[in-house]
Amino acid sequence: MAGSTGLKFGQHIIPASTTFLRTSLSFALVNIKPVVPGHVLVCPIRLVERVKQLKTEEVSDLFITAQRVSTVVVSCFKASSVSIVVQDGREAGQSVPHVHIHILPRILGDFLNNDDIYQELQRHDKDLLESQHRTIYEMEREAALLKPMFHSDS
Amino acid sequence: MAGSTGLKFGQHIIPASTTFLRTSLSFALVNIKPVVPGHVLVCPIRLVERVKQLKTEEVSDLFITAQRVSTVVVSCFKASSVSIVVQDGREAGQSVPHVHIHILPRILGDFLNNDDIYQELQRHDKDLLESQHRTIYEMEREAALLKPMFHSDS
Q1: Which candidate in B100, B124, B133, B151 is catalytic?
Q2: B98 assigned to active site
Q3: Can you tell me the mean pLDDT for B8-37?
Q4: What does the pLDDT average to over A54-69?
Q5: Chain A residues touching residue B87 (CB < 8 angstroms)
Q6: Predicted pLDDT of residue A151
Q7: What is the pLDDT of residue A130?
Q8: Binning pLDDT at 50, 70 and 90, where does residue B154 land?
Q9: Which terminus of chain A faces fewer neighbouring Cβ atoms within 10 Å, N or C?
Q10: Is B94 annotated as a binding residue?
């Protein structure tokens, strides 16, 4: 993916090879430490910390993109449901100060208690041990799998 | 609120007096058993079970409404953050088969572990004991508090 430009995700620069959809105002990326298979993120391109700071057209584009992405990951990862979560602010568990939507494909019995997934999500956001991160190769492979699933502006 | 028409929320008919915002495609209602103060719901007017079934203009209106509502409840309930959650499908914890966004104002230390809120959310959706429900009077009072906070089409 030489020549592709990375995108800002809070303080991080996300390699273009780990993103799989880009619209005029939003982008979608695979996760460095997914809580469930197919756990991906959708973000506004503009670096905005809180949902209330998003312009109307950004909210619209962001969630239309989230709808597209959730439909694709549910299908790709053979899930039946999806948890769509925004931790808007530190007290809601937000760790990266850039609005992002967690898209979490769900299958029956994936967690002993259905909502244990959120405890994993909390650990996911706090635990920055690099040893638990996926390799760039694994991430690129997943992005390359997802990218062709979008027909237009990816 | 005599004369106001109720709205469908899955199998339920929601009294208009417990709703506080209505747009062309969405509405917002107070909760019969809030998990935190100010826990409200935003729904599409059309009875659609899953996010993928929503038309583009419905997704757009729904989340623009959710942005407006979350900004107001965070302010009204003196919160600092907000959890925005869609349980899209049974395996994600959805109990009422009608798309709905949970808007949960958050304050520092509201739960011992930040994400225990989701366990409460799960209990909230499953536990239908009427003894734990708020009275219609409490719900109407909260809706009447929130309604004037929206400038236009409520």
Answers
A1: B100
A2: no
A3: 94
A4: 98
A5: 81, 83
A6: 73
A7: 63
A8: very low
A9: N
A10: yes
As a whole number of angstroms, the distance between CA A67 and CA A98 comes to 19
Residue B105's closest CA among B95, B119, B117?
A: B117
Domain residue ranges of chain B, discontinuous segments joined by +: 7-149
Helix (H) or strand (E) holding B77: none
Distance CA A40, CA A70 (A): 9
Report chain B residues whose CB lies below 8 A from the CB of A106: 89, 91-92
Which pLDDT does position A104 carry in this prediction? Answer: 96
Q: Which has more confidence, B147 or A109?
A: B147
pLDDT of A131 over the 80 cut: no
- Judging contacts by C-beta atoms under 8 Å, the chain B residues touching residue A93 are 83, 114-115
Contact between chains at B51 and A82 (C-beta distance less than 8 A): yes
- Is residue A96 a known part of a binding site? yes
Tokens describing residue B43? 């729904």
Question: Top-level CATH class of A7-149?
Answer: alpha beta
pLDDT digits (tens, 9 = 90+) for A10-41: 999 999 999 999 999 999 999 998 999 999 99
**Subunit contact A92:B81, Cβ cutoff 8 A:** yes
The closest alpha carbon to B96, from B14, B35, B18, belongs to: B14
In chain A, which residue's Cα lies nearest the Cα of B109?
A: A91
Inter-chain residue contact B81 with A87, CB threshold 8 Å: yes
pLDDT for the residue numbered A120: 74
pLDDT exceeds 50 at position B2: no
Q: What is the DSSP string of B11-39?
A: TEEE-GGGEEEE-SSEEEEE-SS-SSTT-
Distance CA B98, CA B95 (A): 9
- Chain-chain contact of B56 with A64 (C-beta, under 8 angstroms): yes
